[in-house]
Amino acid sequence: MDLTSRIRNADSPHFYFILGELISSTDQDHFALNMLKLIDKLLPVTALTLCEWTLDKSNTHLTDIKPLGNAGAPADIPALNASRPAHNPQLLKEVLEMEGSLLIRVNARTKGARRAAHQCTLVSRDGSRRCVVTLYRSHTQKDFSLSELSLLKNLSEALLPLIESYAQFSRQSTLRKMGSWMATLVTNQEPTHIHREFEKRLALCDITLSTREQEVCLGLLNGRTVPEIAETLQLKNSSIETYLKRATAKLGVSGRHGLTKWMVGA
């Protein structure tokens, strides 16, 4: 399909129908699939992944990565997502240094897929957050051309606000789920899951808590009250409050609500 045909597709009624579906799905789980359908209408794309990176206040360090979904052919998505900083330090460097509202980057063929796939990454900047969209194209197709990159740049003016809206919905949805966990009785499996996620967040943020501080934080995240934690640890309520203050100070938040928001990356 040449560039003229693609532009003609962008003006077709069917394209606007797909765009409408994408707009209406910014609060739904199949947003990634609708985005793939829209982009594939203009240029060949076999898969995509969405995630949100959060930087510190100075925008010099990555503090969190939240996957937002994927769609398309699993064979073209590497087992180790090459858009993650651990596997793509050059992309991380460019994201940290980006000054504009959009970064478009074509990577070398990705490793980890069954057959190497072409890859293009779009990054939007909104304060300390970065929405990272990675597009994949099968090894049997040509790499992304300059005309296609130009088309993506123009398309991004419409797509990026939708991606940012979906990322906000995802954060709010996670907060609601966390609130639900804290409002219900905890099963035997949930503490293990929350403990594992808590340790991941601590490692990602390079924060060290004492054993008592971790026990208090995990108790609160598991829906327990201060008196219940105090009874379990055989401590005074005031001691539990002190450990909580020390822990949240290290995390850069305040109180139980701040702890919950930190846990989900909000």
TrEMBL record:
Pfam families: GerE. One of its GO terms (biological process) is regulation of DNA-templated transcription. It comes from the Bacteria. Residues 223-250 form the HTH luxR-type domain. One of its GO terms (molecular function) is DNA binding. InterPro entries: Sig_transdc_resp-reg_C-effctor, Tscrpt_reg_LuxR_C, WH-like_DNA-bd_sf. This is Helix-turn-helix transcriptional regulator. It comes from Pseudomonas poae. The lineage of its organism: Bacteria, Pseudomonadati, Pseudomonadota, Gammaproteobacteria, Pseudomonadales.
